[in-house]
Amino acid sequence: MYLAAAVMLLLGAAVAVGAWRLHRVTAVDPAPLATLPFLSGWRPREHALSRFHARYYPVTLLFLAFDVEMLYMYPWVTVVAEVGVSAVVEMFVFLGVLMVGVLWAWREGALRWV
Fold first, then answer.
1. What distances in angstroms separate CA 105 from CA 2, 14, 39, 69, 71, one per listed residue?
2. I need a surface site. Which of 23, 48, 64, 66 has the fewest CB within 10 A?
């Protein structure tokens, strides 16, 4: 049992090292990057995997809410003439629910940047 696990561990390590060596041999430039391929060659101020500030997330959620709202508005425009006044009322109720969400986010300070 332990022998099989050790063989599998060694095999996995050998495959990983072999893939790394193959990459180094076949790479266009086997040396690490001397220049940065982003930000027009300027050195970045933070790490590429740094997290965004928490204040961006509520704004992103508001954007997604209104972006998804447009998915419902386009089909609604095509059928509003057939359905009539009830379709207009339903859309204004939907927009009212979205406006309540925006007002709640505004009250909670999600749109405040300072």
1. 57, 54, 33, 17, 22
2. 48
